[in-house]
Amino acid sequence: MLKIKRTSLIKVLFSNCLVLYVEIHALPCYNNTKYVFRGVITMSAITAKEIRDKFLNFFQKKDHLLIENASIIPKNDPTLLFINSGMAPIKRFFTGEERPKSPRLCNIQPCIRTIDIDEIGDKHHLTSFQMLGSWSINDYFKEKAIALAYEFLTDYLKIPKDKLYATVFSGDSDMGLDEDIEAKEYWEKAGMPKEHIVSCGKDDNFWGPTSETGPCGPCTEVFYDTGKGKEYVLGGEFDTKERYIEIWNAGVFMQLNKNSDGTYSRLEFTSVDTGAGLERLAMVLNGYESVYETDMLAPIKEKIENSIQEKKGEIGLSQRQIRILTDHLRTISLILSEKVKPSNEGRGYIPRKLIRKCIMIVMTSRLNDFNFDEIIEFVVDKYSELYPNFKECKKLILSEFAKESCQFKKVLEKGLEILNEIKSKTSKISGEQAFELVTTYGVPFDIIMDYASNSGMKVDEGEFKDKLERHKEISKKSDVNSQNEKNIDLEKFNIFPPTIFKGYEDNETKASILNILVNGDKQTDNLKIGDKLAVILDCTCMYAESGGQVADEGFIINGENKIRIYDVKKTKKDVFVHLGILESGDGNLKLKEKVLVKIDTERRKMLANNHSAVHLLQSALREIFGKDIHQCGSKVEQKILRFDFNYDKNIEENDLFRIEKTVNAYIRENIEQKTEIKSL
Ligand code: SER
Q: Are 62 and 49 spatial neighbours (Cβ–Cβ below 8 Å)?
């Protein structure tokens, strides 16, 4: 018989991971043999590290080889901004382009999902997270994958079976895929009750590819029943927002490859790809309301709250805003630690967008002096074991954040002044006002939308978009006008086939005339000396301005007729438009007539030299100022070149001298020049 002191603490194992400490107070009752107990239950949380260890242990025991995780910056994959899933860095295993060391693999991969940015602030979406991943490459398929998933969740993590639901693919005729009846059967066989298996369409249960193209397939996902919200009844609505939280994509059944033309082809072999968000799993296993209570995020969130409270005496931000700061500051640190600089396009736009959102939150809440450095340092220290880059890049992360936020604060100060003024008069931001804010003051449109939604205002998005479109049209036209003098709308030449470019191999070439326009738009084969012409040919050796290098100059010749070409433009569809003046001849030039195209070779040589010099200059700058230097633009002309690059400081006189010396040293090396024409 258990002998209990008046108050004692008993450790009860609930599942392998949750430890309940039950405090028992023994009170004397009717007689000495009976007691009344009052229990106070304290839970000791399962940590993220424990979950990571359990996951890897389980899959390693099942013969999965633990492989190293990759950086969040994709390698050799221009179609993807960031690694967004555990399988992204190893997708060549699924196509057969590369062979893994073992057909069964597992690891834990940091991921960034920019697609969820607008969901952040709810209980379980994050812009960055750690994905627990396991894979079978041309090895086991659906049955074993499902059995393993169920075993891990119920036997290993001891999640009560009645809390688990699985979704399976309901089929799609366009893709030529039937309902995944097998997956259903295997779940049942594993022990999942029939009423807990839900069929869903391709939006929910077809996964991938990670980017535009690549391996993909129907999947089966596991959900945890939080018990709150609308209960699922067979065939009814499955509420994945409130009640059922997705905890594991327990099997993407890789069998298709999406091609660049949008079609699907069968992969040569089938594979399984699974992935579970660690933060979500930690939330569910600990019975938390949100991922922000887990040991990965709660300390950051608390730090933010304390920092505000210390200064202001109250928090003054909504829970949603604090969650956004918590999520974003962690993700920003991760991206900046990979030396991605905030910028206006591509990868760099993501840290820019996240930093701006953080600044917007503190400034609209009048917390202008919020100490971001303190929080970022905390994040970096907390995660430096998991992300080795953090320690070495701490300074860089802080300085990049400071630079970006300082610039944006200036923009936002003026923008907020205007927005607050609009708000004091009306609850609608007109398209005109939004347009003015974007184009004159540089306030990003999504920040205006955020402001509006936080202030219960509406934005006339339609009118804004119209204005922006018109503005773009006008600038495009004036651009073409100024470059083209004669008001030629280049894109109208797209009715012709793309011009074959022979200028890498030849300085002169024979070609056929496809079209000649005189003074902008008149088509005639009766030309006069001095006419300004736009000539389209089937092929050319004249380079059209692109990549910063100006166009070739030269002549188009047919007998006595000589057109001096002073500029060449390329349309979006690669039709070359030769702009020139008829200098001599009788002007009788017919369509389909053969002509000789000749470039000014001396001039081209000087352009080529300057083009090479741009690359030498870039290399010298990287040698002197470090590998962070990259090209932001360039102009290559006959006598000058311009090279734009990222650098925040002044370039001193002696730096200039070093750059010059380095470039000249490269030139003096007199490296042998080779030309090889390769396919793109
Ligand atoms: N690639 C799948 C996902 O990201 C499984 O990991 O959901």
A: no
